[in-house]
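Aim 2 progress. For Flavodoxin, the working sequence is reproduced below.
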Amino acid sequence: MHILKYITAIAVIITMSCSSTVQAQTKTDNNMKSVIVYFTHSGNTELAAKQVAEATGARMIKLLPEQPYSSEDVNWTNKQSRCTQEHLNRSLRPAIKSIDIDFAKIDTLFVGFPIWWHEEPAVIRTFLDKYGEQLKDKVIFPFCTSYESPMSEADATLKKGYPSLKIKKGLRLPAKSEEIKKWISK
Ligand SMILES: Cc1cc2nc3c(=O)[nH]c(=O)nc-3n(C[C@H](O)[C@H](O)[C@H](O)COP(=O)(O)O)c2cc1C
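Predicted structure tokens for this construct:
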């Protein structure tokens, strides 16, 4: 009988310690209070944003330019195309639609984009300019997708362009879930 009581007590302790681990994990996710803002033209960055959402539980918000980019707009072989002009003239800021974020409720922001001309597209600069004041006390994790370019050049242009924002080192996706978790833990 004593042995039975002993086994039951151990079973209860094990069950309680397991459930508190689950609670702790859930709490960590909730504590992050994060949002993912991303721009995509052909869908790759949306898939990347989903990967980040799966790893963090953050809500995804798509950045939409007021004037969508046509296929001719993103023709980088044409010197007159919209994307080439936005690349050559770094002061251009294509208008974006307003987004629904309660900045008071978040502490971390993920910003995703396709690499255009080795760096962040001008739409991302519009976003950072427009909401910069509200972003000052947030931690920002940039991420990208690209054909082959690494994240490092966009890391450099973002740091240079927005020295007052707390921008962390970015990540190029797709990436393994462990890599994403390691990235955001830094
Ligand atoms: C205008 C333009 C410029 C690009 N410049 C680069 C580049 O410099 N380096 C690179 O590796 N990929 C470049 N790409 C490829 C995109 O970064 C890549 O296809 C990305 O995954 C597209 O993301 P999306 O599907 O979310 O739009 C460029 C694509 C476009 C349309």
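The chain is about 45% helix and 15% strand. This observation will guide construct design in the next reporting period.
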